[in-house]
Design a protein that fits this description.
Elements: E1 13-22, H1 27-35, E2 40-46, E3 50-56, H2 63-72, E4 76-87, H3 93-100
Antiparallel strand pairs: 1-3, 1-4, 2-3
Length: about 100
């Protein structure tokens, strides 16, 4: 298991869109468990046991590790990464001036 660096918030914004397939009879419990994971936001549940979530890095947990935790949740059949975006942190004015010199 990876360990998030203590400065994960300073290295950029990592956002993952994940489609979770859960046992339809357990969808409410799975959605509740998902919402309790660090960096996870449940956006939608749909018929057939589908749940749409976003996963972001947190100061203590990498999104990659959270995705692994999603796979291990009771009632989860599969979880697929369907979107990924990484925003580089913006440089402050002083850093830009120093790098331009």
């Amino acid at each position: 298991m990876s360990t998030a660096p203590s400065n994960v918030a300073n290295v950029g914004m990592n956002t993952c869109g994940v489609l979770v397939h859960a046992n339809p009879n357990r969808i409410a419990r799975v959605a509740e468990a998902l919402a309790g994971l660090p960096g996870v936001e449940v956006h939608e549940t749909a018929s057939g046991g589908r749940i749409v979530v976003t996963v972001e890095d947190t100061p203590s947990t990498l999104a990659l590790d959270t995705l692994g935790s999603i796979h291990r949740l009771d009632g989860v059949i599969a979880a697929a990464l369907v979107f990924h975006h990484f925003d580089q942190p913006s440089q402050d004015v002083g850093s830009r001036a120093a790098s331009a010199a």
